[in-house]
Amino acid sequence: MNDPVVSPWLVYWLGRLDCFVDFSVATAMFSFVGAVFLALVSIIEVDEGDRQAFLRSWRWVFAVLGLSVAVAVFTPTKSDLIGMYAASKTTPANIEKAVDAGKVIKDELLADVLAVIEAATEDK
């Protein structure tokens, strides 16, 4: 009964997830710059001996670019995960309980306000 409602580890990893996505975006940007640099180098004449190393560099740049873009796109952000967690806990029964609790609070508040108004009018 004394278990936390939300795991502290979940809160910790939610904060780290945004850093992971930001790192993936930065890696994608640097890979894109590397691809542009390689494209500019390819305009210059590359001799046959360097062509294999050049093609290997292209493969690495595009592999890193593709992987980092995929990670950045398909990894949910902190706000996405909070929304997903809230959606998983939202059920018709929970909504009904919240509405019932709201009605009880509203009725008690209304009774208190009416008692204050009645006490204020009696004093006059």
What do these coordinates show?
The protein is mainly α. The protein folds into 2 domains: 90 residues; 34 residues. Helix content is 86%, strand content 0%. It has 4 helices and no strands. The protein is rod-shaped. The two termini are 52 Å apart.
Largest sheet: none
Number-wise, the strands total 0
**Low-pLDDT stretches:** none
Give the helix tally. 4
- Outline type: rod-shaped
Secondary-structure element sequence?
HHHH
Cα distance, first to last residue? 52 Å
What proportion of the residues form beta strands (DSSP E)?
under 5%
Give the helix proportion (percent range): over 70%
Overall SS class:
mainly alpha
Mean pLDDT: 81
| Estimated radius of gyration | 30 Å
* Integer tally of domains: 2
In short:
Helices cover 86% and strands 0% of the residues. It is mainly alpha-helical.
Compile the SSE list and pairings.
Layout: H1 8-43, H2 48-74, H3 78-89, H4 92-123
Helix pairs in contact: 1-2
